Amino acid sequence: MQNVPFTEKRIFPRFTITIPLTFLEQKSSRSFTAQTHDISTRGLCIVADQEFPSGSDLDMRIQMVDNNEKISVKGKVIWSCMINSGKYKIGIELEEPKLKSISLVLRTIMAQRKH
Question: Hey, what domains does the chain have and what are their CATH numbers?
Fold first, then answer.
């Protein structure tokens, strides 16, 4: 198989950061927990115990580690892949991008340094 060089297609930078979150899959109304892998102003990548098909609508609640603030966002699964036995990376595009990614990353880093 021929190796094809990776070409970055994202417009906005992503910041690798681990923040706990819970989410509800709208179709099944089931609740799940996960954590972010990285985050940007337009989307995020999460690590979860379950795969979700492309097009799945999610209601997410990100819990900040510095003050336990919960930020609610909606998104749509764009891609999903298994990273190891029982764990999946899931790429999510935010419906109404309102995450201030740099602010979230800096707040999380500062909180982690305090502990």
Answer: 15-114 (2.40.10.220)
Q: Which helix (H) or strand (E) holds 5?
A: none
User: Which 8-state DSSP code applies to residue 92?
Assistant: E
- Per-residue pLDDT in tens (0 to 9) along the chain, 115 residues: 455 564 556 566 778 888 889 998 888 888 999 999 988 878 889 999 988 999 999 999 888 777 888 888 899 999 999 998 889 999 999 887 555 655 666 677 666 666 5
User: What is the model's pTM?
Assistant: 0.76
Counting DSSP H helices and E strands in the chain, the numbers are: 1, 7
Count, residues in the chain: 115
